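Schema walkthrough. Field components (list of strings):
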Amino acid sequence: MRASTGNGDQEQDRDGGGRPRAGRRGPRPAGAATISRVAEAAGVSRATVSRVMNGSPTVSPELVARVRAAAEALDYAPSPAARRLALGRTGTIALIVPDLGNPLFQGVLRGLSQAAGKAGRQLLVAESDEDPEEEVILALEARRNSDGLVLASPRAPAERLCSIGERLAPFVLVYREVPGLGAPSLSIDNAAGVRDLVAHLTGLGHRRLAYLAGPPGSAGNAERLAALRAAAPGLELTVLPCGSMFDDGHAAAPAVVGCGASAVVGFNDMVASGALTGLRELGVGVPEDVSITGFDDIPFARYTTPPLTTVSIPKSELGRQAWERLWALMNGESGGYNVRYQPRLLVRGSTGPAPSR
Amino acid sequence: MRASTGNGDQEQDRDGGGRPRAGRRGPRPAGAATISRVAEAAGVSRATVSRVMNGSPTVSPELVARVRAAAEALDYAPSPAARRLALGRTGTIALIVPDLGNPLFQGVLRGLSQAAGKAGRQLLVAESDEDPEEEVILALEARRNSDGLVLASPRAPAERLCSIGERLAPFVLVYREVPGLGAPSLSIDNAAGVRDLVAHLTGLGHRRLAYLAGPPGSAGNAERLAALRAAAPGLELTVLPCGSMFDDGHAAAPAVVGCGASAVVGFNDMVASGALTGLRELGVGVPEDVSITGFDDIPFARYTTPPLTTVSIPKSELGRQAWERLWALMNGESGGYNVRYQPRLLVRGSTGPAPSR
DNA sequence: GGCTTATGAGTAACCAGTTTCTAACATCGG
DNA sequence: CCGATGTTAGAAACTGGTTACTCATAAGCC
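Field assembly_structure (string):
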């Protein structure tokens, strides 16, 4: 025999003595009890053991007790792998995010994890690293190993999502809406958030704004930018390429100074915080010289100096709701309509009156 | 002979005029192709299809082509559930953390997710919510659905872990060492980190320290506190119960002022940041009046005002290493010895000379 | 008391793969 | 030309549960 089968399993004793079947191959988790052994020990059929383990009411109390005792004695627990195959469900749901380092997705992760955990479901997590095609592959793969999917802020183009939508179902979209797709989506009214921010800033007398743009593939970034353009007909707007992390914002500080804006609208709280620190390092007063706003209200935003004016979005709530929707879909219900959460403006210390020129 | 040969051929309708078989039960994912259908289409046996799908070299090129074509035509992909059962492995690893909202664990999550993803493994995540017994149950459950575990900062008592250690294997411990346990651990030399901090603070003339304590169950907290007590024989140390989140630190600010310490050692960066903001709100100058240090070096620590002096630990590296160790263990190798990472002191702006009384 | 109905539990057919064994066939050496 | 050896691919036995049938028994009814 060629050694091609040597897949890591240590064939302990393949001795010529030939005991019945010492250790066939890998599967056996070291003598774990099987349903057959329990059935034998209790003197009943495998079907009866299965019924007892699943709490079927059609078993006599006496047998229930016997099976329970045998299962206990053998330390038996049904094999999840076998149940998956037999039942056709996994007891697992999956979450795909572009970036696990982003508090936005961490919030969804937490909410989803807790809601799914409470319902006794396990959670598979995968990070697509902002790569659209990778994301599609991960999603398909994850879906095959779960009963349902939550796609957070998917970077894949709408038509690509539609083309695989059927194989992804049931699934829920978070932080994005895709019209043609037959999946409920939970999203943020980015335009409303931006309008609130702009109203706040113009109310303070700001006329020259800079926008620290998020990642190019982000739908949220596109919406926020579009809303900013729409909301600011009489304003002067400079768009600075930036990113989504602290360092991106920090690195953009000189450009902010260079463009002469009196107020900076950050794509999110991280770039805003980074820019805030960067500006102060350059000797720019916040908010005396320049006002700064963020987006998302990450836990940290309250603890910058000065605290960041931002727009709050219910991150964990999205996770919880995503579970609710997914649960409904998995039960064949409708999953409900799309929801757009209204963000809430939080005015803190990083914004102030525009400096009189 | 009994009908035991009924290997997958569906005797479509044996019922009296009933419909073919509308929807037997759950399993069928709406007409997904099975290995039997592919075998039939290609005119070969199921065994051959299996061999082709797994790249076995013992199939003639002609058959390989035929099977490939049939699989392609039917859009066939092997059922992960069936493979799990047949192979006895899941292609999945699991991570248990006490709190998904903590950047410390997010770092491990990221590192692990990326390393496992690169190796084509999926990642199951569960949050124990700081509850020791819950954690044990989650770990056992997660282990049964995966090939290996990473336990981050487990809250469960050492003897409890030892008692279930065998059923958890293979697994790796992160942020904690448990002597009796036969699992490699990747931990931080908390004592060294604390010593560095204390040396730095005493070098600046501080003699009265306050420690913002972490969660009671945390092993890291116990180590840091013990090291602090040991490192400060000539110092006055006040221990303030606190927690691990921003708000905990913020709420502790008045107590800090009350105890008269000139330097605050936070359990981690979050409580330190919270305290920093709280102190400044109370009119206390940092670092002029009070110095503050954190621990962990979360991404945010660089962006507080002033930036936080802290001790850096390689969070993502721990995740990557955890994967390496787990991978070795899953292959029957040793998994290597325990590793204690040496943290690195980062002096930033939140610490300064002790005020002359 | 015989017939119908309920009930409890066993039999065997699934779920969808993997792998051992075995048999047929081709190749090679003597 | 025949036996030994080497390949290939199929048959069938697994992986460990679930559940549709089936059947025996007991209870209910007339």
